[in-house]
Design brief:
Layout: E1 2-7, H1 10-26, E2 30-35, H2 37-41, E3 45-49, H3 58-61, H4 65-82, E4 86-90, H5 93-105, E5 111-115, H6 128-134, E6 137-139, H7 143-151, H8 162-167, H9 174-179, E7 187-191, H10 196-214, E8 219-223, H11 230-242, E9 246-248, H12 252-258, E10 261-265, H13 268-275, E11 280-284, H14 288-297, H15 305-311, E12 323-325, H16 331-343, H17 345-360, H18 367-378
Parallel strand pairs: 1-2, 1-4, 2-3, 4-5, 5-6, 7-8, 7-10, 8-9, 10-11, 11-12
Helix pairs in contact: 1-18, 4-5, 10-16, 15-17
Amino acid sequence: MNIVVSCGEPSGDVYAGDLIDSLKAFADVNVWGMLGPMGVASGGEAVWGYESLHLMGIIEVLPAIPRILRLRKSILNEIILRKPDCVVVIDSPDFHLPLVSKLRKSGYAGKIIYLATPTVWAWRSSRAKILRTCCDLCFPLFSFEHEWLTNNGVNSAWTAHPLVKTFRNYSPPPEFVKRFDNKKGRVIAFMPGSRRYDVHWHIDELIKCAHEIRKYEYYPVFSIAPGLHGKLREDLCNRLASEQIEYCEAEGRALLSIAEASVGVSGTISVESMLLKRFMIVVYNGNFIGWLVWKTLIHTPYISVPNILACGAGNDGNMAYPELLGKNMKADRMVNELRSYLEDGDRKRNVEELLSTAVAKMGCGDAGKFWARETLKLAGIL
C-alpha cells in the first residue's frame, strides 16, 4: 500500500510519526511525503522537508507565497504521477486545504484524510465545505471538534488526543530532575515557542518577566524548542546567556513537569501543560494587522484549548489559564498572575479542579493505532 503523509510543523510531525509507526505495525505500507524527523524516524520518506512551512502570522507569510505555491504544485504533481492509495494531510490548513481541493479538481480518486483538522469551529467555518466535499475522513484532535464536524456533515472519527498516551506514565529523565534539585519548588518555565514569529513577538516581555519574578525568589528557566534551528536558535541562546537566564534544550514537557508554573506562547504546549496538571499563563502577540484580523474573525471566548475544555462558554474570571493577548501581554501582568496562583491556595485548588475537568475530556486509548486502523479500513486493507 502506498500512502502520502504531509505535515508542516513540529507538532504535525509528531502525529505523523505516531500514524506511520501504527500503519507499519498493521500492514505492509510505503509512506512518503512532506515530513520532519519524527516521520522519517518512523520509516517515512521525506520527499520534502516539513521546515518549508514553519510560518505563522498573516504578514510573515506574504513574502513566502511564491515559494509555497511552488511547493504545493510540486507535491500535487508528484501525487498525480505516483497515484498513492491514500493521502493524509496534517494540520497547516492554509497549505493543505487548497492542496486537497486541487487534488480533487485534478482527478485524484484515492482516499483523502485530514488529521488535526482546521479550527473551523472557531473561525472560517465555510472551510468545512472543503472537508465535506474533498476529504473521505477527518481525524480531529478533540471531542468538541468531532462533535462540531459531525453536526456539520463532515465524516469524522475520534477516540482520544494523541498526547494522552504519551503523558499517561510520563516522568522526566532522572538526570534532568537532578539538575534542578536545589531549585525544587521555585522553577518557573518559560516557553517562547518553536517558530521565528513566536520568538520575535514574545521574547522581550518574557525576559522582562523572568527578571521580575527573580525578585520573589523564583528561578526562571527558558525552554529551547526542538523546532528552533540555525541562527534563530543560536541568537536565542546567546540572548538568554547575555541576560544570565538559564535555558534548557530538553523536551519542553520535561521542564514543565519540574516547574511550579509556566508562561507559554499559545499552542500545543498549553495542552502538554494541562496533561501534566501544571499552571500556565498563555500569551500571544503579533503585528497590528494580524491581530486586528484575528480579533475580527475569531468566534470563541478563549484561544487556549485547556480553557475551552475546562470552561466552555464560561466567564473569563474563572479560566484555568489566564490569557494575556495583544497589548495585555506585559511582563508586570505575567508576574501578577504568577504570584496570584503561587501564593493563593484557593486559586490553586480552583485551577486543579478546572484542569481535571479538561483532562477528562481528552479521551482514552491509543490515537495513533486508531488513526491507522481507520485509515486501513477506509482503504479496504482491514
